[in-house]
Batch of 3 targets.
Target 1
Amino acid sequence: MNQRRKNRLILTLVVLAGLGIATALVMYALRANIDLFYTPSEIIYGKGEAQQKPEPGQRLRVGGMVMPGSVKRDPHTLKVSFQLYDNSGVINVSYEGILPDLFREGQGVVAQGVLEDSRHVMAKEVLAKHDEKYTPPEITDAMKKNHRPSTSGVSQGGLP
C-alpha cells in the first residue's frame, strides 16, 4: 500500500469513529430528556406497555385520578401532596407551586416529575384534564385499561 492510500484509510477511520461517538452522545442526551408516561399500577407492578417498573430517580409523567380525601395542603407554603389512583394502584405525589384551577379530587391529572421511591413522585408540574373531548390516545388507552369507576368515588380492586 502506498503512503497516500494509507493516509486516506486512516482519515476515513477517524471520521467514522468521530461520527460514531457523536451519534452515541446525541442518543444519550435524547434518552436522558425523555419523560415516559406511566399509570400508578405500571409504576408499582411494572405491567402494561412499559413492561418494566421505572427506577427511583427516573423522570416520568404519571396520569391518574386524584383520590378523594387525599389532598393535603401546607397552610404556610405552596406545598401540596395528594394520591393518584387507577384500577389497581395508588401512588403519592408531592408538589410545590400553584395548582391548575381545574385541579380537584376525583379528576384526572398528569404529574410530571421524578420518581423518589417505588410509590412517591416529586412533581415539577401538574396538569389538570380540562376537556372531555380530547385526550391523547396513549392516555385514553391506559386509563380505559386501568380505571373502572365505582359508586364510592374510589376504584375497585387492589386498593389498600
Note: The CA atoms of residues 42 and 51 lie 8 Å apart.
Target 2
Amino acid sequence: MKKWIVSAAAVGMIFALSACGAKESPKAEQANSNPAAQQVKLVATNFQFDQKEYKVKKGEDVTFSLENKQGMHAVQISGVNVGLDNNNKTKTVKIDKAGTYDIVCSLPCGQGHATMKSTLVVE
C-alpha cells in the first residue's frame, strides 16, 4: 500500500513539474497578429523604449508587440486601442487617422517611469 501511495505521489510531482515548465503555444502569442501587417516591436528597458518614434502607414494593419528586455513594463498608445503587457504581448489594429500618438509605459516601473514615453507617427 505504501509503495502505491509513493508511486502516485511521484507521478503527480512529475506531472506538476512538467506543467510548470510548459511554454505557451506559439498560436496563443500570434492570435492577434496578421503576417502581412506592418510590424512594430516596442523594446522596453528601464525607463525607455528602444526608439523615440515609430512610423506606420495609415489604413493598414499594424501588429504591435512588446518585449521587456529589462524590467517589467506595459504599454498604452493614446487614441489607439492598444494595450500590451506580459499577458498580451501582441495586438493587431488598423489606424485610419493620420497623426501622432503618445506611447507610454502603463505599469509603474520605478523612478524613471514618468519619463518613459515614445511617439507613434501615422502617415
Note: The domain at 25-122 is CATH 2.60.40.420 (Immunoglobulin-like).
Target 3
Amino acid sequence: MSSSKRRRRWLIALGVVAGLVVISAFATRTPSPVGHWDGAEGRDRFMAAYDRAFQDLPAVADAVDVRTDYGVVRFYRFAGSGEASAPLVLLPGRSSGSPVWADNMPSLLEVGDVYTVDLLGEPGRSVQDRPIVDDADQAAWLHQALAGLPEERFHLVGLSIGGWSAANLAIRQPDLVASLTLVDAVFVFDDLPLGTIVRSIPAAMPWLPKSWRDGFNSYTAGGAPVEDVPVARMIEAGMQHYQLRLPQPTRITEEQLAALDVPVLALIAGRSVMHDPEVAVATAERTLPAAAVRVYPEASHAINGEYPDQIAADIAEFLGGRA
C-alpha cells in the first residue's frame, strides 16, 4: 500500500476518536439539555466539511430519516453485492458520522447491504430534540431508529463509542440485533486510560487552537498526520462547534458481556490508547467464550481506516452461516 493511501485511510478513520473522551465534554456545558451547535457559522463550517467528505462514499441508494422519541436519526442505505440477508449497520465514533466509513465501504458492500448512521446527539445530520440522560435512553433511541427501517434484524458494526452503543443495545433490547462486531470498542472490555483522559482535556476546549484538537486526534491514531484532509476537517469542526449533551457511558460489566445472547466478533487494536489492549483481549476471551476475538497487533485506535479490507474479511467469515 502506498504511503499516501495509508495516510488517507488513517485520516478517514479519525471519526473513531475525535472528541471521544466524554469527561471533557462537561467542561463546556451550557444550559441547553440537548446537543447543539455554537452558532450558524459553526454549523455551516461543519456541514460544508461533511458534504465534502461524503463525496468519498459510494453512491447512496437511499437517505432515511427515522423519527424517535429523542429526535430524528439519519441513515444512509447502500446496496451491496453480497448475500447477507440482514444488512450491516455501521455505528461511527464520537464527533463523527457516516463519512468516516468511506474506505470501508467497498469491501463491506461485498458482504451485503449496508446502512450508515449519524449517531443521535453527535455532530451530523441526525437531530436531537429530547434529552438523553442515561444508558437506557441510549439504547432506546437506537432501538426505535432501527425499528423504523424496513428490515427485521441487523448486523451491528460499532466503531469505538459506536461499539459501546451497539453492545449497550444488545444488552438491553436485543430483539433487532442479529450479531455484533465491536471494532476497538471503548468502555466495553476495559476502562479509558488516565493518560488518554488527560490528553483529551485541551482538545475539548473549543476556544483553543485547532492544533490542540489535531494533536489529540493524531495521538489516538498512532501519530498519523491529521491536517488538511476532508474527513479530518469535518471531525475537527464538529469537536469545536458542536456541544455534546450526552451522558458518560457506563462501563459494560463482565456479567453483562457474559449474558449476551447474540454472536459477537471483537476486533482489538494492539496499539490502541483507548484501553489497555492486553486487558481488553483478556476480558473479551474470558467473558465471551463463544465469540471470535481478533487482535490486530500493529493497529492503532484508527483501526478501521488502517485495515478496512481485513476487517471486512473477518466480518464475512464471522457471519458465515448467519448470512
Note: The domain at 3-322 is CATH 3.40.50.1820 (Rossmann fold).
